[in-house]
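Chain A, query sequence.
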Amino acid sequence: MSAILAPVAAATEESPMTDGFHLVIDALKLNGITTLYGLPGIPITDLTRKAQGEGMRVISFRHEQNAGNAAAIAGFLTGKPGVCLTVSAPGFLNGLTALANATINCFPMILISGSSEREIVDLQQGDYEEMDQLAIARTLCKAAFRVLHAEDIGVGIARAIRSAVSGRPGGVYLDLPAKLFAQTMDAAAGRRSLIEVVDPAPLQIPASEAVQRALDLLKSAKKPLILLGKGAAYARADAEVRALVERTGIPYLPMSMAKGLLPDTHELSASAARSFVLPEADVVLLVGARLNWLLSHGKGKTWGGKDAKAWGGQKFIQIDISPTEADSNVRIDAPLVGDIGSCVSALLAGMGADWPRAPADWVQAVAERRNKNVAKMADTLAKDPKPMNFHSALNVVRDIVKANPDAMLVNEGANALDFTRAIVDMYKPRKRIDVGTWGVMGIGMGFAVAAAVEIGQPVIAIEGDSAFGFSGMEVETICRYQLPVCVVILNNNGVYRGTDKNLGGGSDVAPTVFVKDARYEKLIEAFGGVGVYATTPAELRQGMEQAIRSRKPTLINAIIDETAGTESGRITNLNPQRQAAASSSA
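Chain A, predicted structure.
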């Protein structure tokens, strides 16, 4: 039985007391969590104040969704769960999008929300911001818990941490009703109630027969391919992945957030030959990558199938910590279940000194296609159109990233995402973070803030003008904390393009068109940051170089041709109208 204990004021010198606020803070600090992302308000305002007073860093945002995105990517970048604090009901709902996105992307994150009292919520008596938050959260995250008594805070936080990082990482919800914070208990007993989580994400060693099955299949391949996903980047098995590629001589294709595990300029990189290697490969080794929509579900014309549902005939080896991921879309011939570091190490150990390198004719064919496409891209990047287009603007970004390989690159948009991914090479692991599995808009400024806070290196955020609008007010947050973030908005006056017309002929602009020549750089100037209006590559280069040198919050409004870009970027096939048009012409 547990009850609300005597108030702190009643404590004596012989029997010091603690309260729910301090137990939450102490439990987080005990587990190495020293940064909180959130937005203060009832009932967590005092929690943010006290956490800061106890030496934690509290980064306060203008909107909970952006705070949640920051916590999620902090989890990806550090391997520890990022923590987001929100108020009840509307604030909780704002953070829920980020929590669901973190779960889908396998980012370890804990959303902690204050909530109304259970007895009022359960009887639906109309409390302030009344909502059964736990019930709502359960369906959208990996795990959800509620703590009602001060002596259970240590258990609740321990369970949340372990759930967030064990196995396949993901989002966890922790519900803390308002009355919990004021509960008190004996300080010594409170300390004993806290749990330092031991080995929350233990190694999972693959079965020896599974390793041998994968090796046999890989050895038989005439056209092998290694496909790296962001799970490989999260695993921090960088040395093992590099050894696997270089020892076998197998071409590799990184998904966008796996770029930099090996440099994009590596001789075995197939990034510039993606459309060639996917249908041609006969054995594909998936390392921390899922055969979801981003990889056309492992079938269709992307993989050499005759139509959208046809399998191309490849054989798959899949390394994943979750056994249920295998066979999710196509047959996985050799599932290898375990953590990525252990699985790749096991493959390397089983190869022996006489392991054959990938067939030379296949490696040469990939290299020829890659070199051809790289040369074609170089010709395009060498052009200097007026006004700028995506290629000429991103050619500058490409050079800046090459000169500053430790800088973090954040990227979102439609065309801004696709062109940046194709043009800007990455050189080090976990330096590129973007929209991930759902392809959501609005992650930009939250990701940029967390990257600057957690890594301490300059951050370059390449934003479409539409994508920036989802989180643009957080430039005030960037300025408030004086973070070394350079935001580059590729401004073509609208969603996809700025040239659409009102089909009804009325005075309203088309739904995809924005204010012409909007002066986005003025927004950051209002908060003391540096604004740059760039209409040429030279002006863009000067602005970015100055931002990197000064480490001052900077926003560059890069004006590009409003006709540049395509409908929905490279996912036009997902647009229902385009699907209908394609069907009618078939």
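The first helix runs from residue 20 to 30. Confidence is low (pLDDT under 50) at residues 1-12, 580-586.
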